[in-house]
Design a protein that fits this description.
CATH architecture: 2-Layer Sandwich
Radius of gyration: 14 Å
Number of domains: 1
CATH superfamily: HIT-like
Distance between the termini: 35 Å
Helix content: 25-40%
Largest sheet: 5 strands, antiparallel
Bound molecules: adenosine monophosphate
Shape: globular
CATH class: Alpha Beta
Length: about 140
């Protein structure tokens, strides 16, 4: 399988589509998932082009993981979540729907079941507020 540069995350990275941005540096873009599995569901998207983990440059992985940890800590602090699930899907049978590598940071709240993957769209004002709160904890 080859990388399709017209995928939706490539368009967001290029600035051609909007997002609720939390953070951006030379390595990655961090944004809110607009179909969140829980309140505060955040995506870390490395800028280096790869479909997923399987074809990624190990150097790109090494560069992004410290940011994944920072964002996980910031999401937990901003949402008061009780735990954080880190998820990453490789190819459609495994649940991948957007074919540019990304890491899901999904807050878990005691006694609250996680929503389904790719469920309903969240309110834009709520996503914007979450993006600001998480950015403030980074
Ligand atoms: P995956 O199934 O691992 O490929 O995850 C793709 C994720 O991207 C899903 O959780 C979607 O809710 C999310 N998503 C799809 N389109 C957008 C978008 N335009 N902005 C933010 N998140 C998106």
């Amino acid at each position: 399988m080859t990388y399709d540069p017209a995928n939706i995350f490539a368009k967001i990275l290029a600035g051609d589509l909007p997002c609720h941005k939390v953070h951006e540096d030379e390595t990655a873009l961090v944004m809110m998932d607009i179909f969140p599995q829980s309140k505060g569901h955040t995506l870390v998207i490395p800028k280096a082009a790869s479909r997923n983990l399987l074809d990624a440059d190990p150097k790109a992985l090494a560069a992004v993981m410290p940011l994944v940890q920072r964002v996980a800590r910031a999401v937990k602090a901003a949402t008061n979540a009780d735990g954080i699930r880190l998820a990453q899907f490789n190819e459609a049978p495994a649940g991948q729907t957007v074919f540019h590598l990304h890491f899901h940071i999904i807050p878990a709240y005691e006694g609250v079941a996680l929503g389904t993957h790719g469920g309903g769209k969240a309110d834009d004002a709520e996503l914007a507020a979450l993006a600001r709160d998480i950015a403030a904890k980074l």
